[in-house]
Task: structure prediction
Amino acid sequence: MSSPALARPRPVHRAADLLAAYLPGSFYFSSGRGSLLADGVHTTVQAPHGQRARAAADALIAADLAGVEEPLVVGALGFRPDAEASLVVPAVVRRAGVPERGGRASALDGSWSITPKPEPEVYAGSVRRALELIDADELSKVVLARCLELTAGAPVEVPALLARLVAADPAAHVFAADVSAPGDPAPRTLVGASPELLVSRHGSTVVANPLAGSLPRVADEAENRRRIDALLASAKDRAEHAHVAAQVADVLGGFCRDLVVPEEPTVLGTPTMWHLSTRITGQIADPAVSALALAEALHPTPAVCGVPVERARDTIAELEPEDRGYYSGLIGWTDLSGDGEWVVTIRSAEVCDRTVRLFAGAGVVAGSDPAAELAETSAKFRTLLRALGLEGAA
Result:
């Protein structure tokens, strides 16, 4: 009687090795749960808004039957329902642990020109217009974003930019995905370091961590403690945050049992910002509901759009001169069992040859101040600008 074949051990990779192996065209994703690098395309997943989770599930089953080892669907979805989407089953996926702290990355060299779109005073005027709509009871909240378009003297080194984002905050959700579309003059990459988990599913456990209500982080720790206390005490910021947490809890309540929603927010810190944060957990009621299905149901939350959603989305289209593209959409992965992790594509940029387009937004509610919202967007730009060596440019 022959002995049974031994199971082939899974290859062991270091997080630093995956990051070093990244090349434009790959899909990279790291978070507090680990990191992955995906290469090649086994299947492109194409489906209209609202049907992508079903199409992804079908593609995963087909890939499994075709012999793809532990297949995943990876990619990104844009902000609007009719926006671009980039979802694929990659040919090869490598996994590793969480990136180590203290990593180093080389500097990005070169000269830059920077064009704000719109000009800061125009953005402040849009905030004032949004406040008029709120005063007229047409809106409770709307998130307005602005864009910086940066042009370098030479093509931007995306691997170096990605490595600098990981080194700056290994605990963040750091990502890079090819989002090239017909007509692009060169390959286009979505890259960023998001603090906001839209939703994850691991086994039966579902987690969402909406953020809303923010203040810039500074170098002085005593001032940071004051800002944390100010955020927790701010009626305006707590009301803005409550809109988001309530909507996320309401949506997840339709899919989960034993939903736990903390009564009070906490404060989450990144290298550049402080955010009011609520970590919502539950147990999935139907194992057939994947992480991507949950993400589709949740998007867009009031953290990136507003209340009510349709009126806020129309206001964004009216008042923002630049189409958001993938900014404030979602990026992540889902596997054959339905597990996965999807994050909101904030603190992100789209890189194409010598051009970098980055966005930052602020939530406008009753009591918002246009100058303060403008300053908040400037602070949020710092994550990408710092990685580009341009922190003072916001």
User: Anything to note?
Assistant: The chain has one domain: 15-102+112-393. Residues 15-102+112-393 form a domain with the Anthranilate synthase fold (CATH 3.60.120.10). Confidence is low (pLDDT under 50) at residues 1-9. The chain has nine helices and 22 strands.
